[in-house]
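From the pipeline queue, job 12 of 40. The input is one protein chain; the requested action is below.

Action: predict structure.
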Amino acid sequence: MSALAALFARELRLSWAGGGGAAGPAAFNLAALTLAPLAIGPSAETLAAAAPGVIAFALLLSALQSAERMFGEDTADGTLELYALAGPGLALAALVKMAAFALASLWPAPLIAFFAGLAYGLSAEASFALAAGLALAAPGLVMIAGFAGALSAGLKRAGLLIALIAAPLQVPILIFASGAGRAAAEGTGLAGANLMMTAAASLLALVLAPMGAAAALKGRLE
């Protein structure tokens, strides 16, 4: 097994054993979706109109919920130094850690989005488009959260700093993802274009975030 595959397997095990895998983010996502109608109101039209944005925002919160764990413990126990000395380098190590975190923690997000869309009054087609958009957005959200986690690794109250850094960068991805569901609900024919923009934004984060995280982690070591 290669070093990167071993790291990926290790991070998956740690995510499930130490962080509960998808349980925490999924519970946070469901709690946000359950409480939102209390503020929006019971009107079916209002709930359906607000559904894409509310469901996308709930995913953002769940992606940030445990991002502090991605690099915080590695900074504290000396694992970060081993990543820097290993052959693949910090950028690839950061990419693998983020990918493992995304797979372990956010895999239920599209399913939750689909059923939440139905519960909020969207059609099955609009709910599916929204779920597809959020499935494409999830890797990008995790990459950006990981970059923010690397910048704040080892700091006190890092969770608040991660939210302040990551949320403004994640919003554009969520605009396109929620736009896919809204376009499908309104029948504008732009759902496919929004999905492609979501994928493009997510790929951009996939390329840039690991390099930014590696630079931030390297700064922690110097």
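Job complete. The chain has one domain: 3-221.
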